[in-house]
Amino acid sequence: MTIIESLVGVKPVVIFSKISCSMCHSVKSLIKNYGANVTVYELDEIPNGQLIETELLQLGCQPCVPAVYIGQKFIGGTDRIFTLQLNNQLVPLLIEAKAIWI
């Protein structure tokens, strides 16, 4: 099991982020504003953040943050999340993952 798999576990929404990243802040705010149950890992604040960042890059995350997992599936970064939002597809994903209840 990879580090990322163990961190994502059975959590409905996981965001790998950095405090210094403004796009990370935007993505976190968007998802949290729906009242979603979000787990955030700030890679520039946790001890193994550099290792996780390397693993995200190896998985094809470019840039490596923000990296959003919903329902234990990698969804994508900023562009993908905002595209889903504009197409009214983000909320159904969050509901399916049991991150929000409507």
Overview of this structure, please?
By secondary structure, this protein is of the alpha+beta class. The chain has a single domain (3-97), classed as Glutaredoxin (3-Layer(aba) Sandwich). It has 5 helices and 4 strands. The chain has helices spanning 3-8, 22-33, 49-58, 78-86, 90-96; strands at residues 13-17, 38-42, 67-70, 73-76. The protein has a 4-stranded mixed sheet with strand order 2-1-3-4. Helix 2 (22-33) links the parallel strand 1 and strand 2 (38-42). It is globular and about 35 Å long. It starts with a helix and ends in a 6-residue tail after the last helix. Residues 13-75 form the Glutaredoxin domain. Pfam families: Glutaredoxin (PF00462).
Give the class from helix and strand content and strand pairing: alpha+beta
Q: Topology as H/E string?
A: HEHEHEEHH
How far is it from the N-terminal to the C-terminal residue, by CA?
33 Å
Strands, count: 4
Tell me roughly what share of residues is in helical segments.
40-55%
List the helices and strands and how they pair.
Elements: H1 3-8, E1 13-17, H2 22-33, E2 38-42, H3 49-58, E3 67-70, E4 73-76, H4 78-86, H5 90-96
Parallel strand pairs: 1-2
Antiparallel strand pairs: 1-3, 3-4
Organism: Parasponia andersonii (Sponia andersonii)
Pfam families: Glutaredoxin
Domain Glutaredoxin: 13-75
